[in-house]
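In this supplementary section we document a worked example of the pipeline. Step one takes a protein sequence of length 363 as its only input; no multiple sequence alignment statistics are reported here. Step two produces a three-dimensional model, which step three serialises into structure tokens for compact storage. The input and output of this example are shown verbatim.
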Amino acid sequence: MPPEAGEAEFQQSLRRNVPLAPMTTLGIGGPAHYFADAFSVDALIASVWWARSRALPLFVLGGGSNIVVADNGFRGLVLRVALRGITTRVEADRAFVTAAAGQDWDHLVATCVGRNWAGFECLSGIPGCVGATPIQNVGAYGQETSETLVSLEALDLATGKLEELSAAECDFGYRTSRFKTRDRERFIITNVTYQLAVNGKPAVRYRELQQYIEAQGAAGPTLEQVRESVLSLRRQKAMVIDPQDPDSRSVGSFFVNPAVPHEELEQIKQRARKLIAAGEEMRTFPAPNGRVKIPAAWLIEHAGINRGYVHGNVGTSTKHALAIVNRGGGTAREIIELKELIQSRVQDAFGVALTPEPVFVGF
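The serialised model returned by step three reads:
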């Protein structure tokens, strides 16, 4: 029998042939054959049961900021997690914040920064919802979700039960977690709990952010100043969603910055010397586990795909080569073609395989 608690709520929200493109930051993709919003955990569970009882594929949608939807859409149920709410608890110098999975991520960051709680001020301006951030251990400007995450609640599709998982059980790595690897599509995250530092100092570790803040003359910056600096840097790269900026019609960074072993780095540098001007150096950054991170945007541009590159109705951003944008009327087919072209050019030039960040839906 169906889970009765959320059945009526689910049936009320169920629709057919719903366009998905307007629900994505890329603005591309066909319709969902079935679509529903889950405003409660009970409705979420009822939605999963309904799809399974009909042997329908299920895709869980958050803010639509990190997905590429196929031109033919999705032949199953698209379930948008619309759980909302933020609860807080302060213990001495620690603030515990629990946010529902459908809560807007940047609203959460702004709320915590406004209360002078440190921990994810450098993650300002990232589009999407809270529930998506643990999946790929979202990070930017020297901070990662895993640094503050304490635990999360998720529906285990293998058992049909709600489970609480600690940070250690999430298997976080650089832009990855168990939800992206061994347990892909097994869990639907319902809420996340973080631990922040009350009146804590901002984390200014990233060189570009340090230089920007120094140029502003902000010695000993506040959390709010760091947030505004991050937002300014992201706007310069069209990485903040702005309807007036066509370069922001994207999924943000399309590729993960590759992290390579030290022994491979010299081979890559040797290839790079043939492509760069005299005196120029390939930029690198330290990465976990003895690896070295290479900016994907640097590799893309030096492989011959510049900012503003045009491929049909899509292309790279005029502000940042790492973003693939919909120039107007773009298709998922064109996105895939450009993705493969960029990967091929970088592989041929440097011997480095670029890994896409977004989730591909309906392909």
